[in-house]
Fold:
Amino acid sequence: MTFEDLNLNKPLWNALEDMAITTPTTIQQKAFPVIMSGKDVVGIAQTGTGKTLAYLLPCLRLWKYNKKKVPTILVLVPTRELVKQVQEEIERLATYMSLDVVGVYGGTSLRTQSAWVMEGADILVATPGRLIDLVMNGVVRANLIKKVIIDEVDEMLNLGFRHQLITIFDLLPPKRQNLMFSATLTTDVANLIDNFFDLPIRVEAAPTGTPLENIDQQGYYVPNFYTKVNLLNHLLEHDATMDKVLLFAGSKKLADKLFETLEEKYPEQLGVIHSNKSQNKRFNMVNAFKAGESRILIATDLMSRGLDISEVSHVVNFDMPEEAEDYIHRIGRTGRAEKNGVSISFIREKEMEKQGEIEQLMKYNIQIKELPEEIEIIEEEIPEEQERTFVANISLKTAKRDLSNSAFHEKKEKNKKVNKRISHESKMRKKYKKPKTRGSKSKRKRK
Ligand code: AMP
Structure:
């Protein structure tokens, strides 16, 4: 895809050419049609993903000349540096348009900045506090704003701009387009969106750069839940560098089951977060994990998106993700900020196809390791893993209904030989070494 494929116009195409920008980034491709349609948008994107152009291009494309020169587009950013940066980006993009942009920020003369705005501005880039000053002084007419873009929202909330943002939302006219960009979707950000946005569409950037280089991507072929638990325990016992482990489960239910299974062994070192947990609980568990007080945090894909957790030593894909892209999001939690990280994927036979999709997407192969000798292979499966047995039982019943003709007897003998349990067991033994049944083990343990 090139910018020619986006419904831009000559002035914008020319400006992009001058900037030597030829190919839209993922967030630019995804955000463009949605913003053009007038819907509210929540963009999850970090600096470096091209997010600024992602919102500027459609906004400038939709902008119409207005001789009053009063701001109809407002960009809010958390710092003075960002005001300048965004302002300069707009100026470059608007080289071939008669559009004026003014940047305002706190800590300097309000009078001077008021004068800039009064001289005429189509787009105003501002820090929240200074914008409020200008509105209160009658310099900016908030009710004329048609589009508001809040960039780096998570950072803004971290810096304590929450009240100012709410004040601004109250000042703005109800009929407006809201665009919000944030590197992470924290609970605070989600609350703000819930309160002030109208059914926003979420667009997400591809993870920045190649986070893969400094991540050692390992994998094991493991048959089922309980064997995965054994492998996990083994790894945690033998590898002291696994001190901050983010563990991904395939669903809320599996996350809870995993928590219950591990709870006894890792009291006080284990947390679980997913959307059914109360906000308070999630907050406490994430904080304990962040602070290094707990060693393991179990998460689902949905929840992990909003988490700003850095310096994770290991990402463990206890279950492989549904979407190949999620794998990259997941492992991107480790190996951050120039540090090396490790990701370990537990891959069931059924998930091998997924593994292939992921490897194709990354153009990189997960390094498959042999299961350590000591790992006990458990045969028992949890209900979520049992579809195969279910199908086998049904076909067995159908066969029983058959009348006793000789052909059937012959076949029955043969069928006995390929009895599912035996074939499965021997297959497991061959593939994963000696199998054990979970039942006998757990009973033994309980006694
Ligand atoms: P941002 O993520 O908005 O902070 O942008 C990071 C840098 O990437 C800026 O210097 C942009 O000018 C540049 N940039 C934005 N979009 C593209 C693109 N499609 N191709 C190349 N560079 C880009």
